[in-house]
Amino acid sequence: MPITIEKNISSSSAMIFTDPKYAETRNKSPKQIFESNGTCGDEIYRHPHFIKHLRYFINGPDLPEAVINGFCKILNDDAGTSGEILDQLHRFVRSCVREYGLDRDSAASNFFKLAIELEIDHDPYGIRTAAMSTR
What we know:
The chain has helices at residues 5-8, 11-18, 30-36, 43-46, 51-59, 65-77, 82-99, 104-117, 124-132. It is mostly helical and 135 residues long. Helix 6 (65-77) runs antiparallel to helix 7 (82-99), helix 7 packs parallel to helix 9 (124-132) and helix 8 (104-117) runs antiparallel to helix 9. The longest helix is centred in the last third of the chain and has 18 residues, at 82-99. It is elongated.
Protein backbone atom coordinates (compact mmCIF):
# COMPACT_ATOMS: atom_id res chain seq x y z
CA MET A 1 0.00 0.00 0.00
CA PRO A 2 1.50 3.36 -0.98
CA ILE A 3 2.10 6.02 1.63
CA THR A 4 -0.12 9.04 1.19
CA ILE A 5 -0.11 12.31 3.05
CA GLU A 6 -3.85 12.22 3.62
CA LYS A 7 -3.86 8.70 5.15
CA ASN A 8 -0.58 8.49 7.04
CA ILE A 9 -0.12 11.75 8.96
CA SER A 10 -2.18 13.86 11.34
CA SER A 11 -5.04 15.85 9.86
CA SER A 12 -3.47 19.20 10.79
CA SER A 13 -0.18 18.22 9.12
CA ALA A 14 -2.07 17.08 6.04
CA MET A 15 -3.98 20.36 5.89
CA ILE A 16 -0.78 22.37 6.16
CA PHE A 17 0.74 20.40 3.28
CA THR A 18 -2.29 20.08 0.98
CA ASP A 19 -4.82 22.86 1.70
CA PRO A 20 -4.08 26.37 0.39
CA LYS A 21 -6.31 27.76 3.15
CA TYR A 22 -3.55 26.76 5.60
CA ALA A 23 -0.63 27.83 3.41
CA GLU A 24 1.83 30.22 5.02
CA THR A 25 1.92 32.23 1.81
CA ARG A 26 -1.91 32.32 1.59
CA ASN A 27 -1.60 31.40 -2.08
CA LYS A 28 -0.64 27.78 -2.71
CA SER A 29 -0.12 24.80 -0.47
CA PRO A 30 3.32 23.16 -0.50
CA LYS A 31 1.79 20.31 -2.50
CA GLN A 32 0.44 22.75 -5.08
CA ILE A 33 3.86 24.40 -5.30
CA PHE A 34 5.48 21.04 -6.07
CA GLU A 35 2.82 20.36 -8.70
CA SER A 36 3.12 23.80 -10.32
CA ASN A 37 6.86 23.14 -10.64
CA GLY A 38 6.16 19.87 -12.47
CA THR A 39 6.57 17.39 -9.60
CA CYS A 40 3.43 15.31 -9.10
CA GLY A 41 2.17 12.18 -7.39
CA ASP A 42 4.74 9.94 -5.71
CA GLU A 43 7.56 12.02 -7.24
CA ILE A 44 6.79 14.68 -4.62
CA TYR A 45 7.94 12.27 -1.89
CA ARG A 46 11.23 11.71 -3.70
CA HIS A 47 11.98 15.39 -4.29
CA PRO A 48 14.86 16.76 -2.16
CA HIS A 49 12.73 19.71 -0.99
CA PHE A 50 10.18 17.29 0.48
CA ILE A 51 12.63 16.39 3.29
CA LYS A 52 11.73 19.48 5.36
CA HIS A 53 8.06 18.51 5.16
CA LEU A 54 8.85 14.91 6.11
CA ARG A 55 10.79 16.11 9.16
CA TYR A 56 7.76 18.14 10.22
CA PHE A 57 5.41 15.17 9.69
CA ILE A 58 7.61 13.00 11.91
CA ASN A 59 8.74 15.48 14.57
CA GLY A 60 6.17 18.27 14.55
CA PRO A 61 7.15 21.93 14.76
CA ASP A 62 10.90 22.41 15.20
CA LEU A 63 10.77 24.43 18.41
CA PRO A 64 12.35 23.79 21.81
CA GLU A 65 10.12 21.77 24.14
CA ALA A 66 10.05 24.62 26.67
CA VAL A 67 8.74 26.96 23.96
CA ILE A 68 5.95 24.58 22.95
CA ASN A 69 5.04 24.03 26.62
CA GLY A 70 4.98 27.78 27.29
CA PHE A 71 2.81 28.39 24.24
CA CYS A 72 0.37 25.68 25.38
CA LYS A 73 0.36 27.06 28.94
CA ILE A 74 -0.89 30.43 27.70
CA LEU A 75 -3.72 28.68 25.87
CA ASN A 76 -4.54 26.39 28.79
CA ASP A 77 -4.51 29.22 31.35
CA ASP A 78 -7.10 31.00 29.19
CA ALA A 79 -6.51 34.28 31.06
CA GLY A 80 -8.54 36.99 29.37
CA THR A 81 -10.47 37.59 26.21
CA SER A 82 -9.41 35.99 22.95
CA GLY A 83 -7.72 39.27 21.97
CA GLU A 84 -5.79 39.38 25.24
CA ILE A 85 -4.68 35.78 24.82
CA LEU A 86 -3.48 36.52 21.29
CA ASP A 87 -1.53 39.51 22.62
CA GLN A 88 0.08 37.22 25.21
CA LEU A 89 0.94 34.69 22.50
CA HIS A 90 2.43 37.37 20.25
CA ARG A 91 4.61 38.70 23.10
CA PHE A 92 5.62 35.15 24.03
CA VAL A 93 6.57 34.30 20.43
CA ARG A 94 8.71 37.43 20.07
CA SER A 95 10.44 36.82 23.41
CA CYS A 96 11.18 33.19 22.49
CA VAL A 97 12.72 34.14 19.15
CA ARG A 98 15.05 36.52 21.01
CA GLU A 99 15.73 34.36 24.09
CA TYR A 100 16.43 31.14 22.20
CA GLY A 101 18.19 32.83 19.28
CA LEU A 102 15.75 31.29 16.80
CA ASP A 103 16.00 32.11 13.12
CA ARG A 104 13.00 34.39 12.43
CA ASP A 105 11.93 32.71 9.19
CA SER A 106 12.17 29.20 10.58
CA ALA A 107 10.52 30.22 13.87
CA ALA A 108 7.71 31.96 12.00
CA SER A 109 7.02 28.82 9.98
CA ASN A 110 7.13 26.56 13.03
CA PHE A 111 4.96 28.81 15.23
CA PHE A 112 2.47 29.01 12.34
CA LYS A 113 2.32 25.21 12.19
CA LEU A 114 2.02 24.96 15.98
CA ALA A 115 -0.88 27.42 15.96
CA ILE A 116 -2.71 25.36 13.35
CA GLU A 117 -2.02 22.10 15.22
CA LEU A 118 -3.44 23.67 18.38
CA GLU A 119 -6.44 24.91 16.39
CA ILE A 120 -5.84 28.62 16.84
CA ASP A 121 -7.94 29.15 13.74
CA HIS A 122 -8.46 32.87 14.18
CA ASP A 123 -4.84 33.98 14.02
CA PRO A 124 -2.08 31.61 12.88
CA TYR A 125 -0.90 34.34 10.47
CA GLY A 126 -0.66 36.89 13.30
CA ILE A 127 1.46 34.47 15.29
CA ARG A 128 3.69 33.96 12.25
CA THR A 129 3.96 37.73 11.83
CA ALA A 130 4.92 38.14 15.50
CA ALA A 131 7.91 35.86 14.97
CA MET A 132 8.86 37.62 11.73
CA SER A 133 8.69 41.06 13.36
CA THR A 134 11.10 40.21 16.17
CA ARG A 135 14.17 42.43 16.32
